Amino acid sequence: MGDKEDTIESSKFDVLIANPHGIFGVGAHRTVQEYRKFYAIGTGTDLALGAMYAAYDRPGLSAEQVARLAVEAAAEFDDSTGLPVISHAVKLRRR
Prior knowledge:
This protein is of the alpha+beta class. The chain has helices spanning 45-55, 63-77, and strands at residues 15-19, 22-26, 32-35.
C-alpha cells in the first residue's frame, strides 16, 4: 500500500523486462528506463554491473554466463546477495 499522499498507485517493486525490443526497467512508481546492454537490480547492483562490464565483450561467453558471473561477484562482496544462481536460458526465435 502506498502513502495516501502518493499521486499514483505503487506496489513498491522493481521489474526488469527483456524482450526482442530491448531491456527495460520499470520502477516502483511506474517509471520506465531502457538499458542498452545489461542491467542489475538489488543490493549488489554496483558489483554485478562492474562484473558484467568486465565480462561483456569476452569472446565465447553467453549472456547467461555473463549474468552468472555478475551474481557470483555480487554474492562474493555483498552480504545481502546469496547463492546458488538458478538461471533459465530462453531461446529466441529468429525473425
